[in-house]
Amino acid sequence: MQENAKDPVIAEEKEKDFRLVIVTGMSGGGKTQACRYMEDLGYFVIDNLPPIFIPKFVELCRHAGGHVGKVVLV
Fold it and tell me: Three-state SS for 31?
């Protein structure tokens, strides 16, 4: 199974499966609850990432070989 992870075709398919969700809202609007729910669904949640870093972070995630496939930014 680990051999398949190194296969370029499989890595490309995992890269296509990358999902990014951005959660915004006012204080008390349920952002924390939404993030907890997303974590339960297997998403990697990051809070307070400076906007200037978002494009580079997404690029790194997409090229992580499928290790980081679902991300929530708050």
Answer: helix
- The pLDDT assigned to 9 comes to 45
Mapping DSSP to helix (H, G, I), strand (E, B) and coil, where does residue 49 land?
A: coil
pTM, entire model: 0.69
Phi-psi label, residue 28: left if phi above 0, alpha if psi -120 to 50, beta otherwise: left
In whole angstroms, give the CA distance from residue 74 to residue 66. 21
- Alpha-carbon gap, residue 61 to 1, rounded angstroms: 22
Has residue 36 got a pLDDT over 90? yes
How are beta strands 19-22 and 44-46 bridged, if at all? Answer: unpaired
